Amino acid sequence: MKNREEDRLQIACVKWFDLQYPEYRLLLHHSPNGSNKSKAAAGIFKAMGERAGFPDLILLIARHNYNALAIEMKTHKGYQSPGQKEWQKVATSNGIKYEVVREFDSFMQIINEYLNL
């Protein structure tokens, strides 16, 4: 499970995005991978297609040479898991822009640049 600092950062980022880009609000998605679930529920979610390493946020908008934007939230001390690194490698080789965000200002800059490419 993610830590509370990452959660607070992600919540602030999503709130900002929804206010700044309401027309794209439904295209920014969080998949609750790794959340606290029973073993039975975790097995069901895995069978339904939950994948280790999936990013915290995915923006389903194509821009120029990219098919989507994937964002992994991390604290300044946080690091990517092996599954996250593997997901990044596969995603970027398939036309998905991938960013690791550690602070709110970086999120705003990445989103604004991506949407205004």
What's the short version?
The chain has helices spanning 4-20, 39-47, 82-92, 104-115; strands at residues 28-29, 57-59, 68-73, 96-101. By secondary structure, it is α+β, with helices and mostly antiparallel strands. It has a single domain, classed as 3-Layer(aba) Sandwich (Trna Endonuclease, Chain: A, domain 1), CATH 3.40.1350.
Features:
alpha+beta, 4 helices, globular
Please characterize this protein's 3D structure.
It is built from four helices and four strands; from the N terminus they run H-E-H-E-E-H-E-H. With 117 residues, it is of the alpha+beta class. The chain has a single domain (4-115), classed as Trna Endonuclease, Chain: A, domain 1 (3-Layer(aba) Sandwich), CATH 3.40.1350. Strands 1-2-3-4 form a four-stranded mixed β-sheet, with helices on both faces. A hairpin with an 8-residue loop joins strand 2 (57-59) and strand 3. Helix 1 (4-20) packs parallel to helix 4 (104-115).
SSE map:
Layout: H1 4-20, E1 28-29, H2 39-47, E2 57-59, E3 68-73, H3 82-92, E4 96-101, H4 104-115
Parallel strand pairs: 3-4
Antiparallel strand pairs: 1-2, 2-3
Helix pairs in contact: 1-4
